């Protein structure tokens, strides 16, 4: 009890107090703690050194890639597209350097206050620019304006807007404009061929872009060129068979004919008879390949190779050639076309006039449907079918032009009882103007047929489709077409013999044929050694103007173009007597006029009392 009470007194603070004893740290203990801290610091330093060694030596590639990803870029080096020239080296399609403005949306959107200034410089609404950037906010690249003038691009870059930069590109330019639009076609905004020869030879013309490695700053500007990864390989140049001068003549005369006749469209093709090369090809309506978006889509069609039409009377020389080869007629065989028509099933085959009795040459000269039908009756279906297919009807010409039509020529098992008769004068089958030109060029080349080519000096061996003697006989018959009494006197060219054939076909409509027409002229010049084959097709001429017959609407186009082409190519005349007679007549007309002028001058001097 007493012990317990003392304890209570101490706890209550009533007992005597003793000073608290403060523990002391020995020197050994302090040294140990310092040593421990030093060891920890050393270990931390070693860890940091090991980490630095690992980052800078062992695993440096990863972090270098991370750093490069923020500043190092591989950017393409644009490759220029190959130039297209005509056969004489005149440029027809060239690529010019332009600039394209692009932006890094991540950087540009950090400075929204600069967007109005940028939109004004780009010439686009602010909301459109903001919408384009917002939709691609997670990307690092977006085009803002492509293929602009370098000076305009420099003005935009001078604004020093974060994330905005430019890159070099190329834009296609066509110096000849509308004149060659259908042949050349055009490229898209990425300089890829879309139509025409630009599309057909895209792989040849298009170069291979290069790659260079650069360092860009946070504004997208190139700070340093680090490495050339791959040099750019320019595209190959392409030399066409087209002669720009003949092309201009063809386009000009076709355009004039369309305006004079009120036609809806037209096509013309000029071939080199000896090689099959396309010297000119024109179509109307046309378009400006330098501003493709401003033209209707229908105007882009190359009608000379894509549009099918019944060839009309241009088929008659082919029918005659088939019959001559089969030996069922001769140039002097007579055909009684009275009374100007013959039955053709429940229909009639008719002529515009009753020509009475005609020989084979007369059938071509007068363009007698009845005569052609009587000739075809002497041929079997197999003979007629085989001959036409040999000349390329019913299949593509092999020109390689994109979208070329093969034509429509049914096999004999699909013919009706009237098919062969109507096909003999150009109905019941469909062809392109290029197919007609190829067939006529074969007649002019002694029966050797070349595939048409748009490339100069391309290897293009011919194949024989007709005996040269028969081809010469047909040419002589076709020559009468352009002479007095023929249907195409307006195709005659002074000093040259012209072989040709008119054609006028009615356009098909639902359930039959309409009162709308296509007027053709297909010809060769000069007859002795044909140099050029040309086909002109005038579609839907206005009958109230010049009429609709091929000899009226199409033959003058042939004459005007061929006169210029013969002169440009220095082709010697093969009809010297007519040329000399014309020169003498012109000289005779000049002499009386000069005599009258001289007499008047002398009389005036006498009246004035002076000397001459």
From TrEMBL:
The chain crosses the membrane at residues 36-53. Coiled coil: none annotated. It catalyses: Preferential cleavage: (Ac)2-L-Lys-D-Ala-|-D-Ala. Also transpeptidation of peptidyl-alanyl moieties that are N-acyl substituents of D-alanine. Residues 1-26, 590-612 are annotated as: Disordered. Keywords: Carboxypeptidase, Cell cycle, Cell division, Cell inner membrane, Cell membrane, Cell shape, Cell wall biogenesis/degradation, Hydrolase, Membrane, Peptidoglycan synthesis, Protease, Septation, Transmembrane, Transmembrane helix. Catalyzes cross-linking of the peptidoglycan cell wall at the division septum. This is Peptidoglycan D,D-transpeptidase FtsI.
